Amino acid sequence: MRAIGRKNLKKLRDFMESNRIDLVIFKSPDVNVRYFSNFVGSCLLAITKNERILFTHPLELERAREQADVEEIINIKNFDWSYGKAIKERVECKKVGIIESAISLKLFEDLKKMRARFVDVENFIAKLRAIKFREEIKLLKKSASIANSGIKIVKEVLNGACKGKIKEKELAEILGDYLREKAEGLAFEILVASGKRSSFPHPFPYASSSFIKKGLGYVDFGVVYKGYCSDITVPFVVGRISEREKQMVKTLEKAYELATSSIEIGTKTWKLYEKGEEFLKSKGFELKHGLGHGLGLTVHDYPSISPKPRIKDFEMEFKPGMVFTLEPGIYTKRGGLRLENDFLLTKKGLKKLTFSRVIEV
């Protein structure tokens, strides 16, 4: 099967040429290996100006020959298990692009055997992958559809919590079992927070053995479908709540509506974040995390809808083909909630892929 990233190889190689980069390296489990080679396994992918070379272990060799979309596959055992030695003997290079955050110190020490200069290409690659191809959008829609179907499970369990005692962990287990049947797996561990635990954007443990409490809360979950991730958060209200909590719910819904109605092609993503932050501040609340993030082979792809980056090159504009979440959240010492859905930006505007909303039981 052809790698989805094959269509972006020319852009990558144009970037390499303009920056005088001889070779770009990706090391598993970095998702860029899958993106540019269609292979998932223990390996290193080297992209030159003319070919893609996959260096892998003997145990992965046969599967790589069957599944990898590359020009050459090399057994790393033949080079004393050293990627640096193998690349040095196979490719002549003076300047090498790497994803700095995905390279371990041990691997970097090995790569030094190449006697080349290393540069970080993470920002360019992330921006390259931010605009999705038609095949990717199809997979992301399916992933979102599966996650969206989990909302009914959340509602059913919460109805039970209103009638009797159900633990946060039980909700996570029931929802997780349902989603795993339909997808490749979960995009991350399901987060269930109620009562005071919901005052944290990411409480630990993610789902406790405590009973679901009356008041505010939320369930954050997503799935992986053929490598592509979804991510939604369902806010909920159990039983009667105070006037202050009612205000929080209304403010959250207005912040969400403001975000979804303010996106325009060409607008800097950080400007949307600032708009959401200013609105919540005007209502007496603080936006404690980004307003959203991209989706793709990782659950936090580009674009990042967060504060203005200090480095101008890291700024991004909203463009057609982007798939991302919008997730305003409000948190106080007594509890909190977050509303998150997945969206596709097209030339005609914003298309909603999931349909989470505040559930009241």
Task: Please describe what this structure looks like.
This protein has about 350 residues and is of the alpha+beta class. The protein folds into 2 domains: about 5-130, Creatinase/prolidase N-terminal domain (Creatine Amidinohydrolase, Chain A, domain 1); about 130-360, Creatine Amidinohydrolase, CATH 3.90.230. About 35% of the residues lie in helices and about 25% in strands. It contains 10 helices and 20 strands. The strands form 6 sheets. Strands 4-3-2-1-5-6 form a 6-stranded mixed beta sheet, sandwiched between helices. A 4-stranded mixed beta sheet has the order 8-9-12-20, with helices on one face. A hairpin with a 2-residue loop joins strand 18 (about 340-345) and strand 19 (about 350). The mean pLDDT is about 95.
Topology readout:
Elements: H1 9-18, E1 23-27, H2 31-37, E2 43-47, E3 52-56, H3 58-67, E4 72-75, H4 83-90, E5 95-98, H5 105-111, E6 117-120, H6 122-130, H7 134-163, H8 168-182, E7 185-186, E8 191-194, E9 215-221, E10 223-225, E11 228-229, E12 232-238, H9 243-261, H10 269-282, E13 292-294, E14 301-305, E15 323-326, E16 329-332, E17 335-338, E18 341-346, E19 349-352, E20 359-360
Helix pairs in contact: 7-8, 9-10
